[in-house]
Amino acid sequence: MDSDELRSEIDISMWRFIADVVLRTQAVAQQVGLGGSDCQFVALLGVHGPLTAGRLAELSGLTTGTVTGVLDRLEKAGYARRVRDATDRRKVLVTPVPEAMATLAEYHQAHGEHLDAVLRRRDAAQLQVIADFLAELSASGSSSGSRDGGSGTTASSGS
Q: Are 102 and 72 in contact (CB under 8 A)?
């Protein structure tokens, strides 16, 4: 397979993977009584730890007003709480509730085990390529909510 064919295959596989993750997240969200955006915010808190509402708005690409609504729902459902920053009392941090995070982790356990099994079949050099690839994708701004991912292009040529 030549480079163009490989890039095309990777592109298709990435879109399939993204769709699978979105659909799986939506299914988990419904099972635990959250919305899809709510689950994404819980994931952001799981990855980044406590964040301000403003930082959550930046990471998600949503308005601060929308973020406030999501946080209200997460707080009411017991998945997050607002806590004053110990070093700067003017700041309020949104923190994940560990027990709720553990509950969500149970829903993702099979996926985590599959990921671990797939990664264990790779050697250190292959793992480094995968890690670099994913880090570069994440750093591109693709998760910032911008339509062009910071690249000046759209994800679909039909847009």
A: no
Q: Using only C-alpha atoms, what is the Rg of the chain?
A: 18
CATH of 8-107, one of 1.10.510.10, 1.20.1260.10, 1.10.4160.10, 1.10.10.10: 1.10.10.10
Q: Exposed/middle/buried for 74, CB within 10 Å: 0-12, 13-18, 19+? A: buried
pTM, two decimals, is: 0.73
pLDDT in tens, 26-38: 999 999 889 888 8
Q: What percent of the chain has a predicted confidence (pLDDT) above 90?
A: 58
In this structure, are strands 51-52 and 80-84 parallel, antiparallel, or unpaired?
A: unpaired
